[in-house]
Amino acid sequence: MSIKIITDSSSDLPKNLQETYDIEVVPLNIQFGEEHYKAGVTLDNPTFYKKMRESKELPKSACPAPYDFLESYKKMDVDDSIIVLTISSGLSGTYDSAVLAKNMLLEEQPNRKIEVIDSSNGSPGMVILLVQAARAIEDGKSFEEVVALLKAAIPKTNTFILLDTLENVIKGGRLDRFKGAIANVLNIKISLRVDNEGKIEVFEKVRGDKKALREFIDSIGEHTNEFENKVVSLSHSNCEEKGREVLAEIMSRYPFKEGILTEMGPVIGTYAGEGGIVFSFESPVRNQKI
């Protein structure tokens, strides 16, 4: 008997970590016009960014069907316990779909141990939570202990998004095209964050690339001074070199134990737009400055 972890593709969990910790990933559905894809299965990241760049409208995402989750649950040995971590319910219906699948499984196997947890996050925030859970399992923690660990960590996990372009904000109707044009001329950069309800909100508007990036990184020190044994995770939106540089600067300024770099897939990548950077870290309380 063992504890298995299942997540969805909006976690953007790197392949090496999927394999190291044997984490099953259920893909979300992506739609460009009449074309339908499964993220990471029939649509890879390079193709996604190319299609998004060429499209006049933003792609739409849809949660996996309950049967997609049920199929993953049934891959596990009947003696295995299952922990499912999904993208924020404030961003997707994926959590509800996973819960429906859980109920379907329990109708057939009423004695199964399975917990579905709303991460209230996405991409790098989910990576941090998944790695914590996987390492707790390696350390011999029980099913109940791992579930409790995740539920305690979620309200402490911060996620910030720095946009390189306003194109997707304009396409998505969050910013008027005229105002967006003015912002571009004035080189105004917008940063977003995941709020306490797991939804995305505007955090700051700053003029100039360097100032925006500096304040973006400064926000870590404004929210926590606890770095011992902590992980920072950073996702880049089709800009690996930039992502590596930003992560290196974060690691040079703050004594995190580990930094994890990953590439944003279609779900969070649609919010961030090409060239965007998203990072997550743990603090005493999410979005509360110290």
TrEMBL record:
- Supply one GO molecular-function term: lipid binding
Q: Which UniProt keywords apply?
A: Lipid-binding
Q: Name one Pfam family in it.
A: DegV
Protein's UniProt keywords contain Cell membrane: no
Put simply, this protein is called DegV family protein
Q: What is the originating organism of this protein? A: Bacillus mesophilus
